[in-house]
């Protein structure tokens, strides 16, 4: 039977390095994805995810299972992401002004559209990429805390209590935050929403 | 229920995370409010659109970089660890302690300094040592020995033992 996150963390606390490797394996992908969607830069997302794991490792001696492991993990990740966004806000504004017209590839690189792309159905591919780009752009436009709430709710499938603890707000405030975020997304994605209904 | 109250119930309703009683309350409101009905439908559509974004995989070097950073972390020891000896040192210390206790508890090992005020040094002497004492008394009172000249004190250290051993 697979050991729970809390048990693994307690084993790490007791000096079992192998348990840390299991936690890394379990959460590397969710963390990198969450951070990538927060900061929109793959390299930066991986650096931040590394920092999350290092902080977890450093805190192992003081670890007390008072809350769910994921709450603690994503709280560290969210704080790091929000700090990073705040620190690089000026830089990102400069980049967005200079950015070329491009399709925002999911691999994190800004890839310019190439009509000579050897895709079997280039038109369909372009439509799909434009659609994904629009969704990503709508998420990016959300205020940072709303974006974090949407990502934790939608992609990490954490319950409201956990997300509220991660974002240091009440459950009631979180529900309002999510409502406002989805209202913004509904407006931003109106052309796609009407087609999806 | 008002549209204002629906604000906090809408996402949990879309998620299907409401209690039965709360869900019924929301559905009663939706039956009479077209605006909230449209909103619920569109929130579901937005949720579906968010599912379209693919996941990314961490780069191949990610795990190795984390492991390298973990390995570079200084070993953190609690202050108790300062007193935690290695197994060999612990074994040696235990043996030393046991030996001390054993030697101290031997019946023949009586410290004359610990003899009480009513006792004498003779009372503290083990009976097994009596033959030696008897020999000492004999030699101490042996008259021919008193006539022997006193040994000459030499400044040079006596190396006869070392010569013998060679």
In words, what does this structure look like?
The complex is a heterodimer of chains A (about 200) and B (about 170). With about 200 residues, chain A is an all-alpha fold. In chain A, about 70% of the residues lie in helices and about 0% in strands. Chain A contains ten helices and two strands. Chain A has helices spanning about 5-15, 15-40, 40-60, 70-85, 90-100, 120-140, 145-155, 160-165, 170-190, 190-195, and strands spanning about 105, 110. In chain A, strands 1-2 form a two-stranded antiparallel ribbon. In chain A, helix 2 runs antiparallel to helix 3, helix 4 packs across helix 8 (about 160-165) and helix 8 (about 160-165) packs across helix 9 (about 170-190). The radius of gyration of chain A is 19 Å and the shape is globular. In chain B, helix 1 runs parallel beside helix 3 (about 35-50) and helix 2 (about 20-30) crosses helix 3. Helix content of chain B is about 60%, strand content about 0%. Chain B has nine helices and no strands. Chain B has helices spanning about 5-15, 20-30, 35-50, 60-70, 85-105, 120-125, 130-140, 145, 160-165. Chain B is rod-shaped, with a radius of gyration of 47 Å. Chain B is mostly helical and about 170 residues long. Chains A and B meet through helix 2, helix 3, helix 6, helix 7 and helix 9 of A and helix 1, helix 3 and helix 4 of B.
Note the main attributes of this structure.
heterodimer, A: 197 residues, mainly alpha, two-stranded antiparallel ribbon, 10 helices, globular, B: 166 residues, 9 helices, 59% helix, rod-shaped, disordered C terminus
């Amino acid at each position: 039977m697979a050991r729970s996150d809390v048990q693994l963390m307690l084993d790490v606390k007791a000096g079992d390095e192998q348990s840390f490797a299991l936690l890394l394996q379990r959460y590397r992908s969710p963390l990198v994805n969450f951070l990538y969607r927060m900061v929109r830069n793959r390299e930066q997302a991986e650096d931040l995810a590394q920092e999350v794991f290092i902080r977890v490792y450093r805190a192992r001696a003081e670890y007390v299972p008072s809350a769910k492991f994921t709450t603690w993990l994503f709280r560290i990740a969210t704080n790091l992401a929000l700090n990073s966004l705040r620190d690089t806000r000026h830089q990102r504004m400069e980049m967005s002004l200079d950015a070329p017209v491009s399709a925002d590839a999911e691999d994190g690189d800004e890839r310019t559209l190439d009509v000579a792309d050897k895709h079997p159905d280039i038109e369909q591919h372009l439509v799909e990429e434009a659609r994904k780009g629009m969704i990503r752009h709508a998420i990016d436009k959300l205020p940072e805390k709303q974006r974090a709430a949407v990502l934790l709710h939608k992609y990490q499938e954490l319950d409201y209590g956990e997300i509220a603890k991660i974002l240091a707000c009440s459950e009631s405030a979180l529900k309002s935050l999510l409502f406002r975020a989805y209202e913004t997304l509904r407006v931003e994605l109106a052309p796609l929403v009407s087609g999806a209904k | 229920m008002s549209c204002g109250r629906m604000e906090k119930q809408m996402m949990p309703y879309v998620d299907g995370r409401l209690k039965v009683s709360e869900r019924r309350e929301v559905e009663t409101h939706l039956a009479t409010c077209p605006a909230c009905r449209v909103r619920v439908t569109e929130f579901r559509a937005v949720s579906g659109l968010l599912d379209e974004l693919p996941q990314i995989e961490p780069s191949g070097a990610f795990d190795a970089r984390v492991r390298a950073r973990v390995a570079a972390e200084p070993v953190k020891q609690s202050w108790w660890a300062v007193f935690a000896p290695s197994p060999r040192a612990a074994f040696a210390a235990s043996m030393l302690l046991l030996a001390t206790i054993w030697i101290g508890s031997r019946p023949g090992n009586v410290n004359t300094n610990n003899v009480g005020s009513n006792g004498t040094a003779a009372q503290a002497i083990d009976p097994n040592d009596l033959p030696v004492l008897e020999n000492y008394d004999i030699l101490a009172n042996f008259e021919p020995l008193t006539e022997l000249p006193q040994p000459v004190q030499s400044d040079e250290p006596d190396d006869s033992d070392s010569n013998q051993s060679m």
